[in-house]
């Protein structure tokens, strides 16, 4: 049997989830602000404690809303940052798996190719892709299998944000190491950046090629 304290915690979780489910854009934006402020840097056990062992229920709602709205830029930056709290949580590997199960990598890569989205949103997407790549070789392979190298190289060449370009360069460098199956693909992707019109992108591509 659950204790009175556990029952109360579960009740609060269900109230929170119902609040999210019934909220419109502005209210959800406020919920995301509060979530980011209160939970940035927390570990998996801390998130589970915060959500009465039901953190995955909120993550599922975030990923579904991302899948439904990323094309329209609905609170996209806050949504990506909130998902990033789960993906970066220490001991939170299962959160990563849950995100990947809904096609998270493909969504993040598609965000990079949408011209109407802000550079800061695309940069946040690159940061999440870096968290995926940091999880190990099979996750680097998943990014590459999803045409990630082509998407990242195209974004590197076209972006007008130096910070975003640097983030992409770090990710491509990561994909080019410890990933023998796709190392040649990364090499070709970087070479394809060299004729672009951005001197900064050319410089970053050359630096990465040298490190490979």
From TrEMBL:
InterPro entries: ARM-like (IPR011989), ARM-type_fold (IPR016024), DUF5578 (IPR041090)
Protein name: ARMD1 protein
Organism: Ciccaba nigrolineata
Origin organism lineage: Eukaryota, Metazoa, Chordata, Craniata, Vertebrata
Gene: Armh1
């Amino acid at each position: 049997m659950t204790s009175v304290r556990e029952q109360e915690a579960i009740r609060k979780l269900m109230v929170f989830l119902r609040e999210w489910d019934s909220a419109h854009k502005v209210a959800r934006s406020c919920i995301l602000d509060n979530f980011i402020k209160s939970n940035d840097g927390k570990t998996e056990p801390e998130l589970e404690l915060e959500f009465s062992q039901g953190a995955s229920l909120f993550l599922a709602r975030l990923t579904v809303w991302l899948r439904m709205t990323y094309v329209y830029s609905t609170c996209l930056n806050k949504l990506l940052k909130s998902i990033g709290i789960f993906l970066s949580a220490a001991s939170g590997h299962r959160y990563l798996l849950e995100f990947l199960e809904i096609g998270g990598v493909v969504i993040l890569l598609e965000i990079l190719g949408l011209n109407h989205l802000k550079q800061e949103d695309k940069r946040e997407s690159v940061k999440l892709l870096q968290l995926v790549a940091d999880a190990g070789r099979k996750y680097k392979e998943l990014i590459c299998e999803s045409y990630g190298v082509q998407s990242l190289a195209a974004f590197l060449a076209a972006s007008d944000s130096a910070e975003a370009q640097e983030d992409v360069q770090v990710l491509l460098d990561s994909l080019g190491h410890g990933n023998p199956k796709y190392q040649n693909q990364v090499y070709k992707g970087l070479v394809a950046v060299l004729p672009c019109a951005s001197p900064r992108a050319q410089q970053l591509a050359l630096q990465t090629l040298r490190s490979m």
